[in-house]
Write a structure and sequence with these properties.
The complex is a heterodimer of chains A (293) and B (163). With 293 residues, chain A is α+β, with helices and mostly antiparallel strands. Chain A contains eight helices and ten strands. In chain B, strand 1 and strand 2 form a beta hairpin. The longest helix of chain B is centred in the middle third of the chain and has 30 residues. Classes of the chains: A alpha+beta (293), B mainly alpha (163). Chains A and B meet through helix 2, helix 5, helix 6 and helix 8 of A and strand 2, helix 2, helix 3, helix 5 and helix 6 of B.
Chain lengths: 293, 163
Amino acid sequence: MMQQLVKAIQDQPLADRIADIVQPPARRAFRQTSGAGRTLKNILSGTSIGHPLHPILKDVPVGGWTMAAVFDALAVVAPGKDFERAADVSILTGLAGAVASAVTGLSDWSDTTGRARRIGEVHAILNVTATALYAAALLARKDSRTSRVALAYGGYGIMLLGAYLGGHLVFAQQTGVNHAAKTHLPLEFRPVLPAGELKENEPQRADYNGMPVVLVRRGERIHALYARCAHQAGPLEKGSVEGDSIRCPWHGSRFSLEGGAVLEGPATSPQPCFETRVAAGMIEIRSRERESP
Amino acid sequence: MQGKATLADHPIHPMLVAFPIGFFGAVLVSDVISIWGNPGFWPHMSVWLIAFGVVGALIAALFGFVDYFTAPMPAAAKRTATTHMILNLIVVAIYIAAFFVRYGNPISTLGYVLTYIGLGTLVVSGWYGGHLVYVGLVGTKPAKETTVEGRSAETMRAPAQRS
């Protein structure tokens, strides 16, 4: 049944029509290239902590509202003000977490395309609906305990649907997961490009063991990174060199050429980085580790 | 990189971790409210939240064990998974101890110490769990067959519109 829900949503043209209106302003709001807006985007994406932030924050509403469901049930078994109050506190805690989750979620969604964008949109609509039901539940608590409990359980059902779609974004669409995870990297030097073909500060794509790498010459130094961005596999060879870093052309993640570290999000994982040397006129590269970090 | 414990194509373990995280997180809220709230209720609430959390953790652990032994993982991810598992077993042991200490005296100092060492360890362990998914890709199953680059054809294509 859940798979049918996903199938119905993921290719739905109506979802695109809504997203085409909502996404551009969201993108403008979150995609700043410098200053405080940049720092905020790094925090919202989870770049600052190295994991996506939204899936961490969402444990507060999911946990809080699950607690509320338990306490509401206990209040029926053991009537009294205490369990009712415990449930109300849980709902309030969940609401605070839901607001924080919504901001990070909107930021993440503004960078999505295709099926992830459509599924993410319905995920957001369901979660906002659940949040509204819980807010209504709290407002109703003084007037009618029955309405308060009914609204909360309604919210919980909608939240579970939203949560399934959130899981689908991660586990099937791979939104927010590392797109530069590599295993079985060669540890010996292999030639990838004639040294004369690489021009100063002009990123160039090369093939290393069947895998795209981007090469950048900076004076005497030649840098090599895996060419697909850790965020959503954007082509780094089409990106721009900024000092000792390279910026992905798709969503503006910036990586250090020196070691592949993420300098700016939305990417949260580092880019695999390779050792380089020139031998017999050819640029040769190798990995220091079997697996990317 | 999915194990055998799945429901509707998604791994079950990450669905269930919301329960122990919810219960153990709620202990913090309950303990804070007990500072001014009904002293005959909130300290005891904390004790029972710990008990429920332990039960939830054990159920989540069952599915976690299945994934640990059945999900294909590269060596680095397997190390992360081992760390995640050991830390979680420590978390459960700490909370079981906290339950028995606080069952006798819900506001005992030792009980509080155990509770919050448990919560701190849970945060670290949860971090390793997230690392498995978001960095190691464990539990994910791309909609299309992956290429040698590890990316599906759809995600390789440039997005339709750029700003």
